[in-house]
Specification:
Order of helices and strands: HHHEEEEEEEEEEE
Helix content: 10-25%
CATH class of the largest domain: Mainly Beta
Largest sheet: 9 strands, mixed
CATH architecture of the largest domain: Ribbon
Distance between the termini: 24 Å
CATH superfamily of the largest domain: Umud Fragment, subunit A
Number of strands: 11
Amino acid sequence: MINLTNQQIKVFEVIKDHVVANGFPPTRAEIAKILNFKSVNAAESHIKALVKKGAIEKVPGSSRGIKLVEETTGIPLIGKVAAGSPITAIENIEKTIPVNPLNKLVDFFLRVEGDSMINAGILENDLVGVKHSKVAENGQIVVARIDEDVTLKRFYKDNKGVRLVAENNNYKDILVNEQQFFSIEGLAVGIVRENLN
């Protein structure tokens, strides 16, 4: 996986969205305007970095001379999870992140809602990288499904059953009872903060 910075991911997303919407890439000036860069040179330097990392190709002799590298399928970013649907169901996918910004294996990213994990450094709107797993060890942060809901919590299991613990004292532990459907969907392996300027 190509390791892009947050800013390079934003530039890539602008290029990809423009290609999808218009059938051709944006100019450097358009990229600079969309991302509030102070100069066209800033856009150009990000484009050079994306070319170097293999995310895009340059087409010589054209002001819009950028071509997306087709093999970049990307990692799905899951937004609000529709009740009862599988977590990576198409209706939950907010967008695709072209390259993995974490140096760990990630199957999907999940956008965090709420502040229940702030003491673990996970804030609202952070993207949590998740690796598919049906099992977890005590203390690991998991994406868990309880009946229709999907939640991000710290996992504990003992002879009393499963307990999901928030990293915020304002939230009570979730005790999973035997009547509830419970499954682990994956393990949190890292976070990306999108809106770093």
